[in-house]
Here is the input.
Amino acid sequence: MTNNTYDVIIIGGGVMGCATAYYLLKLDPRLNVAILEMDATYEKASTPLSDGNTRIQFNIKENIQISQYGLEVLARFSEEMEVDGEKPDAAFRQQGNLFVLDEASSAESYEGMLLQKSLGCEVYWLSLEEVKTHYPLYNLKDCVAGTFGPHDGTMSPLAVLMGYKKKAIALGAKYIQAEVTEILKQGNQVTGVKLISGEVLNSNIVMNAAGAWAAQVAETVGIELPILPTKRQVTIIETNERPEKTLPVLFLPSGLYVIHEESGLFMCGKSFPDDHVGLDDFRWERKMFEDVIWPELVEYIPEFDRLKIKRGWAGLYEVNTLDGNAILGEWTQLKGFFLANGFSGHGFQQCHAVGRYITELMLRRTPTLDLSIFSPQRILENKPVFESRRKII
Ligand SMILES: Cc1cc2nc3c(=O)[nH]c(=O)nc-3n(C[C@H](O)[C@H](O)[C@H](O)COP(=O)(O)OP(=O)(O)OC[C@H]3O[C@@H](n4cnc5c(N)ncnc54)[C@H](O)[C@@H]3O)c2cc1C
Here is the structure.
């Protein structure tokens, strides 16, 4: 084996790439794994720009199971990722997620709740009065009921990423700062990658973990993925409200969400259908918050009519335009090319189960959790799997 030859090459050192490298080396410490990351500062990578929320409140069985496994891992994350006596702290705040339901969403959410319960999740159906008890600041506008997942919550996505990255490196992964410009193949077998320097690295297994850049990377080998990098903005505000205990994360029917951080600090955001598509715009627009989000926020939480805008940022969702769900597995027409892409805004929480699943597929083991529902084959067959009957992405 030459120095440029690896058992597995991972393109992208975000949370998906690093978690997969960790699981590979955990399952087989002899493996020669390379993580190729074009920007080790992660300035534009989605993981550190994420809100860091996790929830079991999904409607697809496999998405719920992915989150259940994530909770298991988080409970032992510090111990499992220990390197040289240093234990990372994911700062997991299990404040619970409260979904407010309107007429249009309540029946489907009720079904979702029953499914979650049947899988062993703790989740509650709330009356209007109970919603108010959980979130006294919310004036119940548009609300007919609520669901509450007490084990859902938020954490530091950077801490989770760094936990996986350091552990993977400690187990022997080679982390290389380099941009991949081309995926190489011979016939229908992947053979490696070409770097911007012109250097070629060889491997019969290459993983696309390039996040919002995934479609661009796949295109270099002639594969078209239905993934659009889509700008999303987050704003941190300071209010005069000082709830005694941390409030749950509030998800309103309009898509607006409000994450209570601590004391008077809240983080909020919303996706819009006309959010900019492209890899070129990371500007946070204060005016957008002032003109669009703030007025809507005040409609739901009147006490927020006075607040201080502390700061904000923009990052990219990797939106799968077919169905808004992950694309996981080997591309059937190119042997050895594995995808973990298209997470559409809920990828951070899925890194644990996805890292394990992709590893098991690469090593030709039987997956512990069958995630074949998210197979890339569904793109070729145009068979979407939607979370919502209303097919909202
Ligand atoms: C504002 C915002 C809020 C979010 N909130 C949540 C949330 O609350 N919960 C949740 O679960 N998810 C959330 N997400 C989504 C989540 O951040 C992503 O799904 C997840 O981080 C994807 O991880 P990744 O490793 O695939 O991508 P990334 O973290 O983007 O990593 C991909 C890496 O690939 C590198 N790369 C790309 N192309 C190349 C190349 N050619 N060569 C070498 N390296 C390359 C990039 O530099 C990058 O570091 C949010 C996203 C945003 C933007």
